[in-house]
Design a protein that fits this description.
alpha+beta, 290 residues, globular, five-stranded antiparallel sheet, 6 helices, single chain, 19% helix, ten-stranded mixed sheet, disordered C terminus
Amino acid sequence: MAQAWRCSGLRWSADGPVLAWEGGRRSALPRGKRVAFEVGEGGVRTCVGARGHACPLAAAVPGRSTGARCEECARLDRAHSVAADTLADDPRPYRVYLAWFGPGMTKVGITAVQRGPARLLEQGAVSFSWLGTGPLMAARRTEELLRAALRVPDRIPYAGKRAVRAVLPAGEEERAAEIAGLHARAVALDGWPESLAREPFRPVDHVGVFGLAGVPAAVGEVSELVAGGAVSGELVAAAGPDLHLATGKGVVVLDTRLLTGWDLLPAPGREFTVPVRAVRDRAAAQDGLF
């Protein structure tokens, strides 16, 4: 019997996206690669635990959850989290950024300087620019300033990001236009913390990194994995946690956060049999694709 692998998520490296597996193994994801796996019959998705520790209950979690944690482990995981604003004494320098995901979809956020652009790749930012650098709380205050003064959100739903990837503007300047305007307005605001150094507008474009140039519009997205179900397709693009897979019925987007917590097996030759829902801008009446 084939050995089961447990996925610990998608990682972005200098060479592109890789799937990480428990035990330290990694699978590179170059474009054109065949991605094929299945969940064994009778498989159950279990909690991945918190902060490097296994879930003491090995609790079952819903297939549609992108967090793959039970309620208690989710609470513990966020207990010392910058994202949840519960970690105020981190001494590392932070950067404030503006990220663009498509027309009308720009967000403000922060990330540790030592992480470089990894956070932007993980979120699927099509274009971004740094805005300022300084201590954590100064970066937080600047983020709040932009949200209040310029009405820039700090979150963009993934459904919206996926819906526009096939219809992005062709030129880098066009893709950077919205964050260029917001950057100029942001640096002109009063109320910036003195300890946060403003940074010039230097847009970084990820269309080439993600493989989005000419990517076909997705016909659907995986809603969940299920026991006995299989995923099979050729990788045509990857953005954030999403893999765009060419299948016999069109391109389907797989959010790799749905993989964690499952025991997965190789599935060469299997058909695509997990539930798929229509993407946001498709017919709302369609409940499943396959």
